[in-house]
Design brief:
Elements (H helix, E strand, L loop, with lengths): L1 H21 L6 H14 L4 E11 L13 E12 L5 E15 L2 E4 L8 E4 L6 E20 L9 E21 L3 E5 L7 E11 L2 E8 L13 E9 L2
Antiparallel strand pairs: 1-2, 1-11, 2-3, 3-6, 4-5, 6-7, 7-8, 7-9, 9-10, 10-11
Helix pairs in contact: 1-2
């Protein structure tokens, strides 16, 4: 609960500061508050929302990832710093991401508490949901290249960047016909994750990708699973 409160405070402070740095004085605090989200979204891609399919690299051959049910989500409040023509620049900001990995795997450390192991579920097990969810508070930095506006006032856009995240919550979820369970705080997860990001699109719609440069488990304390994501992006 303390982590959630801290996250809300950090997001509130950032969005407030971002709005103040790019807006003009308003007649009253009330009207300024009502307009804050509008000002963020009216900046050049000030709000980015991603829907993704998540997966693992280096997955053991005995494990099958299920990309269509591994649905991730993220959003970022970004402050752009572009040239006068708004064709080149950078953007930086803060956001939240949720990585969800559905597979036929389960994790345990019963045989050796110093390490977490991954195992395939028996073929005889018929389940509806079996996933690991990792939720991060992210800091993001990206380099942006945009075309000039066309007659419709729209642009082609390319963004390449990096992000780093702090794991504030994790859980596994399992459900079949007879039972359902949810467990928190899987042992030996990396507290931080970082990697490369890319986004390409036209106007408000695009495609995105993420490749982690760190595994989800601490070195030598769990399977060497490296996350990646691909999906679609909206910039309302």
């Amino acid at each position: 609960m303390k982590k959630v409160i801290l996250l809300l405070c950090l997001l509130s402070v950032f969005t407030s500061q971002a709005q103040q740095s790019t807006s003009e004085p308003t007649p009253s605090t009330t009207s300024s508050t009502k307009m804050s989200l509008s000002k963020i979204t009216h900046r050049q891609d000030g709000l980015v929302v991603n829907f993704t399919s998540d997966g693992w690299l280096e997955i053991p051959s005995s494990i099958t990832n299920k990309p269509f049910s591994s649905r991730g989500f993220s959003f970022y409040f970004l402050v752009p710093r572009m040239n006068k023509q708004e064709t080149f620049g950078i953007a930086y900001g803060i956001g939240l991401s949720s990585q969800n990995f559905s597979s036929d795997a389960y994790f345990n450390d019963v045989t050796n508490p110093a390490k977490t192991y991954i195992h395939p579920l028996p073929d005889s097990v018929d389940y509806d949901i079996n996933k690991l969810s990792l939720n991060y508070l992210d800091l993001a930095l990206e380099f942006r290249i945009h075309s000039k506006e066309n007659e419709s006032h729209k642009r082609f856009k390319l963004s390449l960047g990096v992000k780093g995240g702090w794991l504030f919550q994790d859980h596994t979820k399992y459900k079949d016909e007879d039972m359902k369970s949810k467990s928190y705080n899987l042992d030996h997860l990396n507290a931080f994750q970082y990697g490369l990001t890319a986004r390409m699109g036209y106007s408000k719609l695009g495609v995105n990708g993420y490749y982690a440069l760190s595994g989800i488990f601490e070195k030598d304390k769990g399977p060497d699973l490296v996350p990646f994501s691909i999906g679609i992006s909206f910039t309302p």
